[in-house]
Amino acid sequence: MPRRPRDPGVPSSPTEYFGTELRAYREAAGLSRPELAEKLGYTPQRIGQVESGQNGPSEDFAKDCDTCFATNGTFHRIWEWMQRFGRLAVLPPGFRPYAEAERDASYVKAFAPLLMPGLLQTPEYARAVLEVGQRAEKLEELLTARMERQDLLTRDESPFFLFVLSEYALRRVVGDREVMRGQLERLLSLATEPHITFQVIRDDAPVYQASGFVLLEFPERPNMCYMDSAGGYGPLLETPRDVNERAVAFDQVRSAALPAGDSVRVARAVMEGL
Predict the structure, then answer these.
(1) Which of 54, 111, 144, 159 is the most buried if burial means most Cβ atoms within 10 Å?
(2) 73 contact partners, CB below 8 Å, separation of at least 6
(3) Burial class of residue 198 in the structure, from the number of CB atoms within 10 Å of its CB (0-12 exposed, 13-18 middle, 19+ buried)
(4) Are 103 and 173 in the same domain?
């Protein structure tokens, strides 16, 4: 079946949407491109490039548009959306809806049997995990996206976090011993925050859940669960039955974990032994 051509009047990206809005405001104000260019301090060619979606605006350009049209930050908010969309675009398709949803969560519960969760990783640890089979430019984009996600840990009104980690994930040397020592130092530092807790499952604990997963709880929408998978292609579960089954599995896993205080002592002992 032939593909239906895209409606040329419908923006296909945040960059095109910014340009569409700019043109609408310019025309509503009765301004030509040269007249708007003079008001903003840019060339008419630059205005045309932004309106057509050929080139995206800078942050200063967006702020200048808000000032010119008295839009109370509308253009800057679109610009921020563009930056966020660009960061999500480098993520694997299966992971993108999860990364978008986690920013609205009030409680994040993660089970990690093999590696430190991405939200906890140092840049060095994350690089060692991500670099296998990646081109250099793609690696840097993925690394930047992973590090920027971590603002979720420290922003105002941050969610509560509970990480259940296997002892194997603590002892597995990723990168080298120096990288792993730095990773464990970060883990112990984050654990001092009142909204972040981790618990460790000893290697001999009767836990047979092989794959990791993350539960997202929301104050005003149904909960979700992301199933970890190679390359970030795991499914995002949204039906209540599927999510509840994973919630039960998380409680079962957590019941075999050490208390938080004992878990901190285990992590510190592993770090000091490196």
Answers:
(1) 111
(2) 66
(3) buried
(4) yes
Sheet harboring 196-201: ordered strands across? 196-201, 160-166, 107-112, 213-217, 224-227, 236-237
Q: What is the pLDDT of residues 204-240, one digit of tens each?
A: 998 887 789 999 999 989 999 999 876 556 788 999 9
DSSP readout, 62-73? HHHHHHHHT-TT
Dihedral sign, Cα of residue 40, residue 43, residue 48, residue 53: negative
- Say what angle helices 14-28 and 59-69 make with each other, to 10 degrees: 30
The residues, any chain, with a CB within 8 Å of residue 62's CB and separated by 6 or more, are 18, 75, 76, 78, 79
| Pair (132, 235) in one structural domain | yes
Q: Is residue 101 domain-shared with residue 82, that is, in the same domain?
A: no
Prediction pTM value: 0.69
Domain of residue 178, residue span: 97-272
Q: Is 6 within a domain?
A: no
- Cα separation, 16 vs 22, in Å, equals 10
Based on the fold, state whether residues 79 and 106 are members of the same structural domain.
Answer: no
Total structural domains within the chain:
2
Residue-wise pLDDT for 106-147, tens only, equals 999 999 999 999 999 999 999 998 887 677 777 887 888 888
